């Protein structure tokens, strides 16, 4: 039976949910507060890492499910969004060994490399102690991915409405009797179900709708782009702490049309997404410059540009993908969620249709910092 579904939030996860719901024949309307291609949330920009190498096999499985869906999206939308360049994980020998074991268990190709072998193949990179190369990785073009998802959803019949803020959602938490969504234009839209995917606004928006929401931190992160001519030839890379590098959370990088993007993971200040200062932090810029001087000889002598983005993370960095009554919640993805977009959309569609969710991503679960 086709359902009437409202999707609140038109960033990556809302767009992915709209695509997968409309692909199943449901009547979907996306309500997005800001305009097309806006830069206020966590989904904008030119680059995100795609990888299947995770220390937890469940995440590797999710990424492997997402890969063919990204390719299907490209076919349906006519837009290229994913380029596989391969990836290099290096640093902590224990972490690299764990990644190799998980990839082997999933039947995916990977090869151990020495620092010298890394430098021979990618002169711009300096590897720390031990490295693992795996080909099922690369970059997603973030803005193009969101655009493609909304385009594909529209071709399946979804209505996408930009510039529509949601001021309230009324429903019974314990029944499936439908939902009313109130907009900032005083519209009252009724539906069988609603999917709420509001990114950095989740901690302020969701507690009135569902119980059991884990705590979430919204932080402003500040990566840099180093403008080098061979940026698109770079693999994605992650430097795991524990060998010659001791930054908690580690560092990531990848090539993009804007240069080689480099960023620290989850170290930025807590912010209010509606009132944040996007002025570059000189200390944060200097930390990344210093890192590049030591570990990235390929960007030497270039003047980087800085940008800011939002992370929304739970203490254990696991996502929130669950349903209560007619409300399906998608939250806590920033930092490593973008690559999973289409499969998260499928999981949201399952929940809307009444299928059970995954305990790891449930509301009301116990959480603790990793």
> How many beta-strand elements?
22
SS strand fraction:
25-35%
How many helix segments? 8
Major β-sheet profile: 8 strands, mixed
> Largest sheet, order of strands side by side?
6-7-5-16-17-18-15-19
Tell me the series of helices and strands, N- to C-terminal: EHEEHEEHEHEEHEEEEEHEEEEEHEEEEH
The assigned structural class equals: alpha+beta
* Estimated radius of gyration: 20 Å
Topology diagram in text:
Blueprint: E1 4-8, H1 12-23, E2 27-32, E3 48-50, H2 57-77, E4 82-84, E5 87-91, H3 93-105, E6 111-113, H4 115-121, E7 131-134, E8 138-140, H5 142-155, E9 159-162, E10 166-171, E11 179-183, E12 188-191, E13 193-196, H6 202-205, E14 217-221, E15 224-226, E16 236-240, E17 251-256, E18 259-264, H7 282-295, E19 305-306, E20 309-313, E21 320-324, E22 327-331, H8 341-352
Parallel strand pairs: 1-2, 1-13, 2-9, 5-16, 13-22
Antiparallel strand pairs: 3-8, 4-8, 5-7, 6-7, 10-11, 11-12, 14-20, 15-18, 15-19, 16-17, 17-18, 21-22
